[in-house]
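<instruction>
Derive C-alpha cells from the sequence
<data>
Labelled lines for chain and fold:
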Amino acid sequence: MSYLCISNRVWKSILLVSMQFFCFASFSQDVVVTGIVMNEQNVRVANAEIKLGTANVKSNSKGVFTLRVNKLPAQMNIKHPAYKEYAEVVRAPIRQGDTLKLEIILEGKETELEEVTINASKIIWAYDKKNTHIIDFALFDNEMLLVCKENHKYFLRRLDSIGRKIVDLEIKKNPVGLYGDCTGGTHLVYADSIFEVKFIRNSIGMLSGNSYAETMRILGPCIISSPDNIIVKRMGPHNKLVEYDKIDWNTKKPSLLYITSDQKTMRELDEFVLRNEIATELSNKSFKMGNQPDKPSEREKFQNQQFYKQILQKPLYAPIFEINDSVFVFDHFKDSAIVFTLSGKYVRSYQFSYHYFENWKNELMINEEKTKLFAKYENDGLVTLRQIDPSTGKVIHLDILDKHIYPINIQIRGSFAYYIYKHYLDNSIHYLYKQPLKE
C-alpha cells in the first residue's frame, strides 16, 4: 500500500507525537531503590521478602529495605506470611542517578482468601449440553453463536442470553471457526473457504462461499470502522514495523494515523536475510553486504531460513482498539498509549508498564461492549487477566481463571469471561465455560 501525498501538518503532528517517546525508554543503568513496607493500619512490616528483577532483600525491623538493580522497568514481588502477595512494575526514576523511593502498602490475607473462594465456586457451564463438541464461539449483542459438532453432524447454533438454543443451521463438516470483520460481520471459516453469516430475526442465513485467502486479503487489514473512516493495518519489513492508516469513507483518500518500528532489529535482520539469501523486503532498500570471509554453508542457510520464519511469528506488538468511542494504540515497544478520536484526531499519549509483569503473553483484549481492556498472562497453563484502565494504563483488577488450564478463545461480556476448555486427556470434545470477573 503506497500513498503519494501526506501534508506537512500531518507529518509535523506525527513528529511531535514521536518526540514524546524518548522519555519512555527502558533504563539500563544501576539504580538504588529504597522503600518502606507497611500494612493498611500504617504499621511497618518487618521481614517482608522483596524481589525486584533479579535482586532480593528483606525489610528490616522498621519495614525499610534498600536494593540495587541494573534494569528498569522490572516486576516487584513482596511476600509475607500474614499478608496478600504484592506485585507491581517499578519504573526508572525521571532523572538519571536519582534514588527511587517507594512506599508499599500490604493488604491482609483474609480478603484474598475470600475472593478466591467466591470466584472458584461460580465457574459455570456457558453451554451445558455435555455431548456437544464446541469448535468455536462468538458473543454478539446479548446472544451467542456456536460452531459445534453433535452425533457426527456440524452446526451453527444460535443461543439466547441464557444459553438456550434459538435455531440450528447444519453445515458441512470440518469447519475451522469464526471470523469477525471490522464492520461487525461474522464469517464461518474453513481451511480454504469462508462464508458470511447473516442473522434475520430468529434464524441464521449463510451467503455463498469465497476463497479464504482472497477474502482475508481484502478484509484482514481493516481493524476499525467508524462513520467517518476505516483504519487499516500494514506490517512492514520483518514484521518489525506497524503502520495504521485511516481511509476517509467519502473521499477514499488514505492518510497516516500512526507508525512505529524497531529500527535496530530491522537493520540487523536486513543483514541476516541478505547473508542467508532470504527473499524478503528490506527496511533499507539500498543496504548492501560488506565482505564476509566466513559465508554460511547451505545447511546453515537452511537452518537460518527456518529461524527467520520463527522471527516473523513474533511481530512488533502495537494493537489498536476502539474503546469508549475513542481509538487507542498500545505501542508496547515504546511503553506508550496514543489516543485519537474516532475521526483520527490526535488527543494525547501516556506511559504504561503492565507488560513488564511476569508471564505477559503479548495479548490485549477488550470486552464485547468496547468499554474495558484486559491484559493476558499465563503461567503453566493458568491464565491471569489484569483489567487495565484504558485512560491511564494502570491495573484495576486481577482475575485468575483458576478452574481450567490453557483456556482457548477467551472473550469477555458483562462481568463474565467466556472460554473453551480443551481437556488435555481427551481431544474429542471441548466445553464452553464462563467465570465471573471482579467489578
Observations:
- The CA atoms of residues 418 and 434 lie 4 Å apart.
- The chain has a mean pLDDT of 87.
- The first strand starts at residue 31 and ends at 39.
